[in-house]
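3.2 Worked example (two chains)
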Amino acid sequence: MEIEANGFMKTRTVLLSAGVFVFLGLLAVVSITRRHTSTPANETKIFQVRGRVLAIDATEHTIRIAHEEIPNYMPAMTMRLGVKDLTLLGQVAAGDSVQFELRVTNDDSWIAQIEKIPSEPSLSQVTAATNSPSLQELEANQLRAGELVPDFALVNQNGQATHLKDFRGKAVLLTFIYTRCPLPNFCPLMSKNFAELEQRLSKEFPNQYHLLSISMDPEFDRPEVLKAYATRYATNSADWSFATGDAGSIRFVADLLGLYFQKENGLISHDLRTALIGPDGRLVHLWKSNVWTPYEVQRRVRETLTGSQDIVAR
């Protein structure tokens, strides 16, 4: 009986060991399969695009271009596109017809190459929607730091009326977005930055700030659309409102801050504006691009609320 028992135990041990090896083998196969079928986290898409240069901003490292349709990605639009190679800024001038390479990752987009090409009638037509409003007129009439920001009325993601005066006594950070924006370093970046600011400011200044994201696309971005969009970024609706309204109300707020936006081919051609409004309702600072960081804005908010410029951990 003892011999039989020992034989049974040995057989059981062998079976268990074999089972473990089979299980580990299956895990290895699953792991290898997952690695093989996974998509690169930040794959770069490359597009060859034609368009017409409208303006060059050496300070912001951008070229404003009215471009033709990018098949399977974006309709004909007018965009302020960034460059990483600053020598590209000197290779073209306003009015030039150009061929350029647009590179897009999950979190960035930029012009990688650009060259002047002979002008064609089709390239002249892509600028038709950009003649009004004038960028110069918008910037000439925008509010300046220290000026009182007039009250305005919008509707938040919960369908409730929202006034700027509702946040008097708090530091207000206001930016513009629209939910269908295709370029990752435009509206999606503004929302990601605001999400990080919400985390930072809720720890340092609870109940002393408010974030306000205003859609430039009121026809599509109705309250229910903004509410679904908000779940991707915000953790507390008491601190962060996503707002819409009628076209006139949106235009009023945009004009206060010199924001250019224009409907083109079903989407919105636009620049970027992010404003810090003090507890007294006056404009503190206006960022005109996407190069600001949550850390930088947090310092501005701290200075506005306390007068301190102490550095905190990034």
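3.2.1 Second chain
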Amino acid sequence: MTDASVWRSTLAGHTSTRSCDGCEMCCTTMEVRELDKPAWSPCAHLAGGGRGCGIWGDHPGGCKAFACLWRGSDTLLPPDLFPPDCGFLLALDPSEAWPTVVKVCAEAGRPDA
């Protein structure tokens, strides 16, 4: 097992009661190559009204590999770092490289968030 795999399995062991309700930032800030979706543009598959992904369950691998650190643990990040409130999200890079990279993805309209 690589150091990155150990870190990811440790993260996966954290419990979380947080939901994506009211946040669609990953669907607007992240690039999704399988959908030809550029970064900082809303995904064509957003259900709208804060309801999230309209193709959930059939969403592509790039979306499935995404790991939002705010949602992933009740203890890693404080509640005030809810992405729509602070203007950025923190995402775990999907590669197995070590050291693990954490991406800071700011909203297009709030580049200094």
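3.3 Remarks
The chain has five helices and three strands.
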